[in-house]
Amino acid sequence: MKLVIGTRHWLGGEWTHLDGDPARLQSDDGLLHYPDIVSRAERVLLPDRSCRVVYSQECLEHVPWNRTAEVVGEWARLIEPGGILHIEVPDFLAACKQALEVDTLDMDLAIQQIIFGGQSNMWDYHFAGLTHRTLPFYMEQSGLTVIDIGRGWERGWLTVVGER
């Protein structure tokens, strides 16, 4: 199984989409798509090692920081041998650096969304600031081997990929 957790964008029929929000997913094909599984990301009701890939983009930062390691462990539990966990989140340190280097009102206003979320609905709040050190640490604690760490706009800010 290829599982998408909380990404809010329909990636295609070969993916199983899990989201806490039952509302329609964004899609590029003009069709209506909804999550296959409506569930919070903190506890996924699927069997151990049942996923070849677990992919999450812009979701983990919405989990309280003191539960981040637990949630990464929950997602890692789903990975079959040879499978991967791919997580993309805002790079907290890069956002802080950018805010300090671009000393303008526009940046002051823009950084609010990056650090605190859009706050447009009950799901759109950021509770954790993840870095190129903390996220790989949580993956390794969960028994995965980190095989890639990417930072920068072209990599979705911070991308960490772990393998079982």
CATH architecture level-2 label: 3-Layer(aba) Sandwich
Main pleated sheet: 7 strands, mixed
What is the number of independent domains? 1
Uncertain residue ranges: none
CATH topology: Rossmann fold
Please tally the β strands and state the result. 7
Residue share in β-strands:
25-35%
DSSP helix fraction: 10-25%
Strand-and-helix sequence, N→C?
EEEEHEHHHEE
Q: How would you describe the shape? A: globular
CATH class: Alpha Beta
Q: Count the helices. How many?
A: 4
| Class from secondary-structure proportions | alpha/beta
Mean pLDDT: 94
Write the layout of secondary structure elements.
Layout (H helix, E strand, L loop, with lengths): L1 E4 L9 E5 L17 E2 L12 E7 L10 H10 L1 E11 L2 H10 L3 H12 L17 H8 L3 E8 L4 E7 L1
Parallel strand pairs: 1-2, 1-4, 2-3, 4-5
Antiparallel strand pairs: 5-7, 6-7
